[in-house]
Amino acid sequence: MTKIDAPFVAEAGKVMAMLTEAGHQAWFVGGCVRNALLGAPVSDIDITTDARPDDVMTLAKSAGLKALPTGIDHGTVTVIDAGKPYEITTFRRDVDTDGRHATVQFSDTIAEDAARRDFTMNALYAGPDGTVADPLGGLADLQARHVRFIGDAEARIAEDYLRILRFFRFTAIYGNPDDGIDAEGLAACASGLDGLEHVSAERIGAEMRKLLGARDPAPSMASMRSCGALLRILPGAGTGLLTVLIHVERTAALAPDWLRRLAALGVDDATDALRLSRAESRQFEILRNGLQGTETPGELGYRRGGKLAVDILALRAAASERTLVHTVVAEALAGAEKSCPVTAKDLMPTLSGKALGDRLKQVESRWIASGFTLTKEALLK
């Protein structure tokens, strides 16, 4: 018998008892069970039950808990206990889908609820005491780190085409790199590419952020490109530089950064395709331009700040297939702390307008070229 030993099992005791004491089933499900079994961090706590949403609302009120009908039409009620939210969703089965949204009916069995999920490792359940129920063989797949669609892969994808991207994301995060990607799943993704046209850029962007933020997304991204999925989303994207960049990141002890890695894919603009915010779009442009630039590490730090400067230097190191050494990083971070000793006030009122701006640029360029060593007096001569 497999059990999970995680703090949320005890913390959710009152919420689970609210259901079971009324004669209903109550199961933790999905990511919280999967991650608890892996010893990975758990964020959201999802619970599933045979109780209908209106009954959940009534039971929560009787137990003195706050209940919010956050998705009641689809069976979801959020119950809050001690400031912690628990999403409680009634067992469901899909009766129709258009590849984006599913029409569901409530169910009374855990088997039907499991069958509508995406991957076997996400169809794991745990009872109030943490005992795991595994209706579809997900536990063995989780232990083998095998990301596998439930049942027929093409059918699962046709229910929601975003699952194509989720397949690559889950493979990057949970898959065993030594075993490679699931062949049936990869073939199904290739067959379902046209369905990506029906998925919003916001949803695609959210998945790509998570995928690129994985510890090592390069193998999964390479598979994504080989089957055509990456080029559907980002035409012209390549993964060769990404593979080298991740090696550079590891040797320089840089934390994963999805935007830095996006800049390594070789696309000129990802703003519309991934719905980048204005700030993200500006940073992406700086990274792409910086990759082709020639500024010294110190100048990059001064002009772009330490974080962006180091990201650019990592991209340049990957492009030239060399490591990013500590001294170069230190130089960029030191440059980010510098302030030009000459300001506009020092040149006024003798200069104004364009002449003032031009003179400030000249002074700043001399100061940077000196390695930030020239004094104010020397610069004003």
UniProtKB/TrEMBL annotation:
Q: Which residues form the Poly A polymerase head domain?
A: 26-148
Know the name of this protein?
Answer: CCA-adding enzyme
Under Enzyme Commission nomenclature, its number is 2.7.7.72
Tell me which UniProt keywords the record has, alphabetically. Answer: Magnesium, Metal-binding, Nucleotide-binding, Nucleotidyltransferase, RNA-binding, Transferase, tRNA processing
User: Which cofactor names does the annotation list?
Assistant: Mg(2+)
One MF annotation (Gene Ontology) recorded for this entry:
tRNA binding
Q: By its UniProt entry, which InterPro entries does this protein fall under? A: Bact_CCA-adding_enz_type3_sf (IPR050264), NT_sf (IPR043519), PolA_pol_head_dom (IPR002646), PolyA_RNA-bd (IPR032828)
